[in-house]
Amino acid sequence: MKRIFSLILLILISITIFAKQNDILTITHFSTTLNQEKTFRIYFPPDAKADEKFPVLFVLHGAYGGYKDWIDRTNVEDLADNYRMILVFPDGGEFGWYVDSPIEKDSQYETYVAKELVTKIDSLFPTVASREGRGIMGLSMGGHGALLLSAKHPDVFGSASALSGILKITEHPDKWHIAERLGSMNENQKVWEDNSVWEQAERFKDANVKILFDCGVDDTQTGAINDSRKFHERLVEFKIPHIWREMAGTHSWDYWQTHLEEHLNFHQSAMIKMTPNLDKWKQLYFERLLIFFDENSQISFTKPDKPTICLLGSSSMQGFPSDLLPEYYVYNRGINSDTLGIGTKGISHRLEESVFDMRPDFIFILNGTNDLGDHHRTGEPSIARMIEEYEKIILKIQERLPETKLFIVTCQPVRDKYAHLATPTHSFNMQLKSIAEKNKIPVIDIYSKLVGEDSLIKPEYTTDGLHLSPAAQKILAEMMLKTMKEK
Amino acid sequence: MSLKRFFKINIPFFVLFSSIVILFGEENDVLVVTHFSKVLGKEKTFRIYIPDKQKPNELFPILYVLHGAYCDSSAWIEQTKIEELAEDYRMILVFPDGEQFGWYVDSPYEKDSQYEAYIIKELIPLIDNKFPTIAKREGRSIMGASMGGHGAITLAEKHPDLFCSVSSFFGILKLTNHPDKWNISEKLGTYEENRKLWEENSAYEQAEKFKGKDIKIFFDCGKDDTETGAIFDNRAFDQRLTELSIPHIWKEKEGGHNAEFLNQNLKEHLDFHWNIMKRARNNIKLETLNPKH
Questions:
Q1: What is the ipTM of this complex?
Q2: Which of A34, A143, B129, B270 is the 20 to 30 A CA-CA neighbour of A348?
Q3: Which of B31, B34, B38 lies closest to A18 in CB terms?
């Protein structure tokens, strides 16, 4: 029996391996810009529909690297299956810096990537072929490349992001062969500034490029953390919307692997209007993330003048009217039908964009009912597993935002066509209260307020057996306001 | 005499020169594409020539071009002037790798030698799915030389729903005439013990499959091509088609089994396919053919 199982497993693994690899082509072509053969890789989403056209994300490698890096060193091709984007992995030269060298004719990587390759990809493959459907990201030298190319060609790229970017090359006059491309900095100050994204930051003004960059706090040896902080300050000065994240980590594949998914989320959201063939749920999910990204980008230079609240959860939060909390600025981070995050989607997968990017003063979490629904339908996940995921979320928030006041809202009771969730909701809430107590987090027990003697929600408090009626929302708002003042 | 010219004239097409180095400038419009083949369970490389688009949504007819024994996907480009000639047409050319002795058949003996399935089930869908092709029979043709001539004709016989025209240069069109040659028995087993399988994969024996199918057929061969036996295969194939009243064009020409023959006759073959396929380009609303592009 065991042997049969291993055999089946082996077959399944082989099928998976084969299924993955077919969607990537490695293409060698003659570049007229560089006057030499160049190779790039291109990833296509699986099961393309006959009329499906894809947005394109260019993914740039770092110094000492090549076009193979991202696919060979991260799980980008597995992650990519969760999106509908073509990914292009160009060859930027080992130290090409994505600039047009005034010295070396065969090192014109700005033109090669932003013009020749973009045109070639659009001409050969089923792409959306507009700036709204084209993004660019990269790490280290490639982070510099992604932001520099989008600053210089905002008509080509609608979104740009950098991991551990070398964002002010004028800080590094003797490093990484940059001088071979641009000449010595002493003698070529202007060329260096023309090719350094910090100095070029003003180009982003009114360019409508969506910008994200992050860096590990321990990335001091390369200087990427200093460059990134300075670039953030520079953008704030110019009032250019952007998202800047300082996170734990170093200049390493470990860091890039960890944060890759956040960048794919960012670009997929930025290009969501050009991605009509996503599953409906994912479509709504990325549309919501886009709203979060846009809101968070604004906060980078305009802070709200009221205390801020983050409402984290699913439909009960998404549908919650902000005007019930008039003295506060409300970031609504609810996404209809979202779950806690067991598997590949859910709240624990979107904490950066839902919570950490805007560092709210107060956070209310209300979630669990959709996981309970999944459990009822499929037997998975167990309530213990849900509680585990919930605790993971609150611990992470406490660690990253120790100043923020966090509150847990119990799941509301249900009735009618959701009545089958009544008992599990009760058990879930009991366990939720115990982890809240363990972690010293105040609980807003909306369940007890809305439940009737029959253990179901009182009819006047729900619109459809699950979602809160305006009367119930009002009660919840009053409880929130009271608790915030007590705190 | 330039290096390239030397190869064009003096090198018999049948011989592999993996060490041939060709100036990069010659491959301007050709992409070299490597992908993982599920059918073969290994990486494969094909080459593809795509004309420059004259308008954004332009779609092209496509001609599959098969190489001969001892060669790979680079042979046609490196040993003939096909790339230069291609510029006179508005067709995509695809040069698959059919392995040195893959014979474009599905071998019951070697799992990673399934070159009929590879081309038909994997490569054609992949290319239609990703590249700007007219993804219909009316816009798809196939040709080849020697082993590739055999490949083109047998694939067209077996899949007349996929191709509107087929042509062969000095094709090995009757495998059963060559039981001990060119590693065919490694793919199909010995001829004595696997007669049926050999016949199922031989153009001559499968000729009847063309009957009633609207597919244009053209093949030629040099009079001096006696050592391989291609000239005898071709004459027999002509007779067989004549017997079956299947329309075809057969031309017996001067020349032998070499690249010179290919270069002399290449334009005629390209014209042949282009004249048939350009109708697809002109007559049909292109958007309906491959809505992806």
A1: 0.79
A2: A143
A3: B38
Interface touch A126/B130, C-beta < 8 Å: yes
The CATH classification number of A303-486 equals 3.40.50.1110
Query: What residues of A are in contact with residue B37 (Cβ under 8 Å)?
Result: 22
Q: Which has the closest alpha carbon to A100: A115, A110, A90?
A: A110
A37 contacts B27? CB cut-off 8 A = yes
| pLDDT digits 0-9 by tens, B36-53 | 999 999 999 999 999 988
Whether residue B35 and residue A26 make contact (CB cut-off 8 A), yes or no, is yes
Contact A22 B24 (CB under 8 A): no
Chain B: give the shortest CA distance to residue A50, in Å. Answer: 6
* CA A179/CA A96 separation, integer angstroms: 11
Say yes or no for a CB contact (<8 Å) between B33 and A125.
no
> What is the distance between the alpha carbons of residues A168 and A165, in angstroms, rounded to a whole number?
9
- Give the CA distances from residue A86 to residues A132, A275, B6, in Å, rounded to whole numbers and listed in that order: 14, 11, 43
Which residues in chain A touch residue B36, judged by CB atoms under 8 angstroms apart?
Answer: 18, 21-22, 24
Whole-angstrom distance, CA of residue A118 vs CA of residue A157: 10
Contact of A10 with chain B, judged by CB distance below 8 Å, is answered with: no
At residue A48, the pLDDT reads: 84
Least confident of A32-36, B132-136, B257-261, B283-287: B283-287
Length of chain A: 487
Give the pLDDT score at A6: 52
Contact A298, A241 (CB under 8 A): yes
Contact B292 A48 (CB under 8 A): yes
For residue A106, which amino acid is it?
D
Contact B36 A24 (CB under 8 A): yes
Chain B residues with CB under 8 Å of A44 CB are 129-130
Q: Which CATH number fits domain A23-274: 3.40.50.10700, 3.40.190.10, 3.40.50.1820, 3.40.1010.10?
A: 3.40.50.1820
> Which sequence spans correspond to the domains of chain A?
23-274, 303-486
DSSP B234: H
Q: What is the pLDDT of residues A203-260, one digit of tens each?
A: 999 999 999 999 999 999 999 999 999 999 999 999 999 999 999 999 999 999 999 9
Residue pair B197/B215 in contact (Cβ under 8 Å)? The answer is: no
Burial class (CB in 10 A: 0-12, 13-18, 19+), A374: middle
Q: By the CB < 8 Å criterion, does B36 face chain A?
A: yes
Reported residue count of chain B is: 293
CA proximity to A320, closest of A470, A103, A115, A101 = A470
Q: What is the pLDDT of residues B56-110, one digit of tens each?
A: 888 999 999 999 999 899 999 999 999 999 999 999 999 999 999 999 999 999 9
Q: In Å, what is the CA distance from B60 to each residue of B27, B54, B56, B89?
A: 20, 11, 12, 10
Q: Which residue of A has its CA nearest to B46?
A: A27
pLDDT average, residue stretch A304-320: 94
What's the number of CA atoms in the CB half-sphere (13 Å) around residue A237? 10
Q: Which CATH architecture has domain B3-288?
A: 3-Layer(aba) Sandwich (3.40)
A186–chain B Cβ distance below 8 A for any pair: no
* pTM of the entire predicted model: 0.86
Q: Token digits for A137?
A: 């990201």
Chain A: closest CA distance from residue B219 (Å)? 32
**Per-domain residue ranges for chain B?**
3-288
Work out how many CB contacts closer than 8 A connect A with B: 67
Q: Residue B156 to residues B63, B129, B164, B238: CA-CA distances in angstroms?
A: 12, 21, 9, 16
pLDDT at A403 over 50: yes
Q: What's residue B280's pLDDT? A: 74
Confirm or reject contact between B132 and chain A (CB < 8 A): yes
Q: Is-contact B272 B218, C-beta < 8 A?
A: yes
Tokens, residue B83: 């790339």
